[in-house]
Design goal:
Helix content: 40-55%
CATH topology of the largest domain: Beta Polymerase, domain 2
Strand content: 15-25%
CATH architecture of the largest domain: 2-Layer Sandwich
Largest sheet: 5 strands, mixed
Structural class: alpha+beta
Number of helices: 8
Number of strands: 9
Length: 199
């Protein structure tokens, strides 16, 4: 797989699509008809070639009104998806409004699933407004800014999270905005230098 930076985002060439990639791409084609979104967390590193598993794809979306969510719910149901939390669309919408996540998978399956949340704070909204477009042929995936990804992963500080942060830094260190990264590290009170991440 090759990573190429273009004016329109990041182009991935010679990437063999996994079943997980296909699941994500198919879902996003539906989602983007209803609202804006950004993919965050573990799948971002997987997208760029990190060999690690994940059960869910963390996705932040701009808030929908109830009628739009109902149409989205019906569309997914017709396309053989289901919500793991509930089969009541009003309950699901209320969960999202309470800053809870809902999970969506293909019918009769549990893994992988999309973990969907409404944007709830500055960082979520920043991620959506400043998302990076990643292109695989004519397929598009919007991901969170790399600087924010690295800082947040270091803040979480689990072994897998730290490994994700280092992985992203090594791939993008020549493209990272060091000032932006430093600002996010300060916001999260996260230490990067002990992992060889220069700011």
């Amino acid at each position: 797989m090759n990573i190429q930076h273009t004016p329109n985002g990041i182009l991935l060439t010679n990437k063999a699509l996994s079943e997980l990639d296909i699941f994500v791409l198919d879902f996003l084609k539906i989602l983007e008809a209803y609202t804006d979104y950004v993919i965050v967390s573990g799948y971002v590193t997987i997208l760029f070639g990190r060999a690690r598993g994940t059960e869910d794809i963390d996705t932040i979306i701009e808030k929908m009104d109830r009628k739009t969510f109902e149409r989205f719910f019906n569309d997914l149901t017709e396309r053989n998806y289901w919500f793991l939390n509930s089969d009541d669309r009003n309950d699901l919408f209320d969960m999202l409004n309470e800053n809870l996540a809902v999970r969506i998978a293909k019918s009769n399956e549990i893994i992988p699933n999309i973990e969907l949340k409404f944007a709830k704070d500055y960082f979520d909204n920043f991620s959506i407004r400043n998302s990076i477009k990643v292109w695989i042929d004519d397929h598009k995936i919007k991901i969170s800014p790399i600087e924010l990804q690295i800082a947040y992963k270091l803040y979480l500080s689990g072994d897998k999270d730290i490994e994700d942060a280092i992985y992203l830094y090594e791939i993008f260190k020549d493209r990272i905005n060091k000032k932006t990264l430093k600002n996010f590290l300060e916001e999260f009170d996260a230490d990067a230098t002990k992992y060889g991440i220069e700011i």
